[in-house]
Amino acid sequence: MNLNLIHPGLIMTNYRTLKAGTEQFYNSSSQNVSASVSYKHTRHGLFANGMVMHSWTHVPYTMAQQLYGDYVVYSYADAKNDGKMLMAMGNIGKTIDFMRGSCNVNGSFSRNESHLFSQSKAVNSVSTGWSVGGKISGSPCRWFSFDYRIDYSDSRLTMNGQSESWLSTMENELSLTSIPHRKWQWTVSGEHYRNELTKNNYKNIVLLDTKLTYQLNKKIEFAASLTNILDRRSYNYTTYSELSSFESQRQLRGRQLLLSITLRK
Q1: Burial of 157 (0-12, 13-18, 19+ CB in 10 A)
Q2: What average pLDDT score do residues 111-138 get?
Q3: By 3-state DSSP, what share of the chain in percent is helix, strand and coil, each rounded to 5?
């Protein structure tokens, strides 16, 4: 259900009701400075890039939040709203010739300051987050290849000087592909998620899939895939918004088998 209300403090005013010489004009401004660097050494298979940006915004009005039972209504109010954002990210990659693959490491950091009114009270919020990750892939022999990725992130919300706990998320993905014969291909993939719902309260989930493919000829291909082998039924996680933490529980589709035929022209 969507609820749209017109709040008395809205800055959007019907121009037909205004007299000549209206005073309700607002100008917002923003500034930002950024720098980036990149490096490439093709012969050694080394690649790197990085970026950092800092921005400032000034808006003469701010968002206001009112709670009406189970509903949250947003509007705007006359108040200075100066915000800051800092963001940095980088990536380093390297080819691995002996196994015909590559690897890379990446990281990022962000910090965002914002202001709004909640229940007629000023709230200054600061959201901070950082992440690191890596990926490696290769094909050490003609009949086998693999891909692996890992990501770890941490985030925290601070309101009026009071900080919530850091909440972390970790993701792992692994895919193994075997080609025992030129007509057959077998892939097994797995995903692992470790989400911190509240401080020191973790939710782990592992998902496994597999797929077997047989290529009869250039035009006809048969495949059988089995997804969610462990029959997991739910997935929980927690995220931060401007003023609150949000916990979600999603229902997953159970184990299923799919048989398919692909026809190509």
Answers
A1: buried
A2: 85
A3: 0, 75, 25
